[in-house]
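The pair is quoted verbatim as follows:
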Amino acid sequence: MPRNVRWVLLGVLLALLLSLLDGMIVGTAMPTVVADLGGLDHMAWVVTGYTLATACSTPVWGKLGDLFDRKAMFLASIGLFLAASVLCGAAPSMGWLIAFRVLQGLGAGGMGAGAFALIGVLLPPRERGRYQGMVAAVMAVGQLGGPLVGGFVTGHLGWRWAFYINVPVGLVCVAWCWITLRVPAPSRRGGATIDGWGIAFLTGAISTFVMAATWAGSTYAWGSWQIVGLGAVALGLLAAFVATERRVAEPLMPPRVYRGHRNFPLAAVLLTVTGVTLFGATLYLPLYQQVVQSASASHSGLLLLPMMIATLVTSNIAGRVMTATGRYKVFPVTGALLLVVGMGLLSTMGTDTSRLATSAYMAVVGAGTGLTLQMSNTIAQNAVRLRDMGSASAATHLFRNLGGSLGIAVFASLFAGSVAGGAALAPGEGGGSGSGGAAALSSTAHAAYVADVAHATHLIFLTGALIALAALLAAVFIEEVPLRGKPGAKAEDAAADPGAKPEGAAVA
């Protein structure tokens, strides 16, 4: 292990930050992009294409890291991301921008999967708490800082620099990781083979799922034959994928990861639900505050600071306690409970709720996220062996992103059904927050519009609270097995994978 692993982590986390920021930064720049390139009808695919490519490529990059060289795969994904960023910045039309965003999403999938796998290899779970604050800070800034960065860069440098800015930062990241990153080579068991059919079936299943989640409630009704058909195709491809994974020599997502210990699928449920609540809060809280509470759109990102600060504080505390005591079950249970309570409190907001009350409710959700998100990753990685760290880390990253995609689709449908006449657009559907459209309404229409938005956010956050109950149920059933990383790690590692031969901890 390096003398100061924090310096190594900085390079890894910088890549993770780039991939997270780029998923959120473009939304702020889209009105300017459309004004320059046109293509309003296809604007949503600038975001959807990136999300879809990221989701589909994440498990593939994770498995390649397990089979070959994690460092090489990580650096290759950063290189692809940077090349695509340059192409996005130089895009001459909306069609080319969408194509280059898909390419950029492929790189981002490897950056996210590689970062979490490297964290799992560099930091044994028992020692993870010492560095959890760094990871939580990057996750919080990546999720909540995108609109701020996007607005600043677009307003001062132009929308193309929202992509070009990745290049100098990414080059520093590549140089940093090239020099400082040292990870053990994966132990290949015979000749490495690629699970081609598994990749094809899983990519198809994820693609149809994301498209159904994106179109449901907006382009097509939830019960339409298009959405039902996409759902049936997704289930069929998923069944084919599961059947394939049971018989190939090197499965893309090894079944032993899911059946080895119950903590892994339970952690996956926690991450999926946290993705739903986190994406819902970050998208619709600024909208509520701008429309209902008349907050300034230019400072919308700052409105989420109470949630970000609470996430950082609770994640730090939980990490330090986990490292000192080895106990951790109390944190996901408490965190899931806080998510239920926080989303429930947000659902009580109306047209007369104060900003102070909203900030307090956001802090409760942030505290729940801080206790749940990173702890769930640690629990999942502690439940698998080092040889499957890439596949397991990619799976957890995928579950969180798919949870976010499903949450966005459900919440957008609720919003569209509650806001009469389409006076405002849901986030990601053009026009930003919709506050500009509200300003042009008459006083009577504006009052009705504000009431509709308040009712829509009530339904969104109430649904989030109900979904968060699934996370609470999963957290209750988590088994507090010993964390790897202290003396006796070999025995603990074997306990994480019953029936397997003991293997040394990731870091001596």
User: Anything to note?
Assistant: DSSP finds 19 helices and no strands in the chain. The first helix runs from residue 5 to 37. The mean pLDDT is 78. The CA atoms of residues 81 and 104 lie 5 Å apart.
